[in-house]
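INFO  loader      accepted 1 record
INFO  loader      residues=239
INFO  predictor   begin
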Amino acid sequence: MRLLLLNGNTSQAMTDRLAVAARAIAAPDTEIVPVTARFGAEVIASRAAYAIAGHAVLDAFAAYGTGMDAVVLACFGDPGLGALKEVAGIPCFGMAEAGCRAAALRVRRFSIVTGGERWGPMLIEYARSLGFADQLASVRVLQADGGQIGANPEAAREAIYQAASKAVSEDGAKMVVLGGAGMVGQVEPLAARLNVPVIDGLTPAIKMAEAAAGQRANTHPGTIPATGLSPELTRLLTR
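INFO  predictor   done
INFO  writer      dumping tokens
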């Protein structure tokens, strides 16, 4: 199968790190095709950047999605995921949704640890919209954003541990979900120090995508007249 790994941030370095991690997770016969958003924020860390990323995700799929069997939106918070599911015609999975669903299946209460101060309320709202209000113990947020964490993961390791430890001891979390592309690679070091399971969003998203590959969805909303979009996105919305 061919899996589109779509980074809604514009950081190519982040996409490269995600691609390495994804290939280690995926089955041997899964081809990972990494793509970076063509416009928007280098690292999404605000509501404005998140809104722009929703457009960028659709644009990137329109440009690079042909011939794919499934999509993993490799951007925690899943900007544009609902719209992507509507127009893609193939299975689409986001890191945040997949991580929350995987945790909710295993434990009664879980917490998210992520980077970027403004993500706290945004992720609480998103988890509630997915139906996990009662299972989300907390969202613990580091001051460093995902780009900073990913660029120097060793330096961020202690801060991640402290946030996760408080989620367990103070918030009652029975599992920790590491949120964000910058957190990829931090699961094993953190799990070795905590007394609860730790997951990220990338692993369950890829496994779900592989399981669903080949399924077709007929959810396209029909022709959407629009102006100012890329030629590829215009074709996708008017097909």
